[in-house]
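INTERNAL AUDIT FORM
Audit reference: QA-55
Scope: verify that the stored structure record matches its stored sequence.
Auditor: D.O.
Record contents follow.
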Amino acid sequence: MKQQIVDPAEAERQRMLIRIRDEFAQCSISPSYAALPVEERMIAASDGVRLRTVLYRPAGREAVPVIVMRTCYPKNECIYRAMAQEYVKRGFAVVYQYCRGTGGSEGKWEPNVHERADGKDMLEWLCAQSWVASVGYFGSSYLALTGWAIADIVPNKVKTMYLSHYGTHRFISAYKDGLFRHDILTAWTMENAGFPIKADYLESCLHRPQWTVDEDLWGQRIDWYREYLESADSDAPYWGKGVWKDLKEIPTRVKIPICFVEAWYDHHLGSAIETWLSMPEETRRKSRFLIGAWDHSFEMRLQDRHGKNYWTEDYLRAFEWFYKILENKQQPQGDVLLYTIGADCWSRRRELRENDAAVKRLYLGRQADALMLTEQIPQVSGTVTYRYNPEDPVPSHGGEALLRTREEVGSLLQEPVVARQDVISFVSEPLRAPLTVSGQIRLQLTVASDADDTAFMFKVMEVLPDGRSYNIRTGVTSLGYRNGSPHRVSYTPNTAVALLIDSWDISYQFQAGSRIRLDIYSSDFPQYAVHSNFAGEWAKQAEIKPAEQTIFWGLAYDSCLILPLGTEN
């Protein structure tokens, strides 16, 4: 019997449908409204392009609260339909519109470009309808982008937004210190190019030069992907103009309350944090920032460690937010709600980083034949070297910036120490008491390389008393963009330089008896592009070469892991 092949995207849609059904079965607001016939309209944008718009409305109400979505994913219409039906039963209308060039809408599909103008036009049309009492905007991922694109220019009837899994600082989702995030942007490009791409994903990521992967493997040139590739500088003109400039600035002008939902293992987390921090304090005081241990699809990503206080509800939580504001007309109280991995608890706070100055430092060193993390600076200096070969990159296993390689995202069981010669591990003594970290883990490091540019990366893990290791956070940098330089700087081979490498935020509790493990290496593929060990524009390089990497420790170098302490300590 021929085995049936299940499309992962379709399987995910089916999980979403089940989740919507199960969540609304727990809703405290009982279904009490019948539905009017579904309407479809082609609503003209200001330039005359008509956009397919679908309307779900309850019967028996003259003016109703309305939930709005704008989307580019027609294959997900079954999800929008199921969600709309649940809202309509409870007295809400739901309206979703397809972005131009998608789902029956006219025009050319150009990701990101038209969402501000088209969204503004759509909301102005909607708010002019007599049956619209108030409006809430709902969206996740690209649908959240369409919300952020207009969040500062909404009509008065728009009272709030519920946005998840997107950040408005696009550069942060594209690069970290010159290293391109393949598993975000290459993956998304291949899935949303506007034409089918049948090329192998990993082969595409390894293609050199990456600049021509579109024509060489995908079948045609994609200019908007090439713009990503040639904009490794955070101060590159591409990021300071057009849609990316607008998106970065919009949160600073937002006045309506926003429920902003993210995940420790979502590829937009870093950008989302900057979005939240850039919002006016007055807006944050009536908004919520919620972060759980999910991935981009709200799937729990803690291997072998399911907590009792863990939940994944999103659709129902969004409905409750909208019901409170649109139906009950209550003003929300702002807060930050974080899930602490390991402690299996949620903490509520006023600020995201309440205790940012309190840190614990663990210094790199050697005791006998073992590389160690110690609380005291080693009085004797030393080095350790490894050979980084771009032909054999360290595969991504456990991480944050993963979209296509979804099975590798999260906190996962790791390989034992010395599993690879190009991964150097430092391990602490067992902890005497639980240790909670909250914020950005950083690595202060002195290094050298025989290449004129290269990459350095770290991964922090918890080693349980039984020897199992689980990753917590990764951090990456390159010598060409070291210490957060907005543009490429030079490096003289075999020269010792100091690095400060940071990670995205995390809230995590190490257990008493566990050890802290730090791995240092130079590749994490396909989470990040493989560094060629040559200086210059990475995407236009056709050659690669091995590099000899050196790590320094001791009194003269002050190489250490910096852990931000949570208030629980």
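Auditor finding: record pair retrieved intact. The first strand starts at residue 39 and ends at 44.
Action required: none
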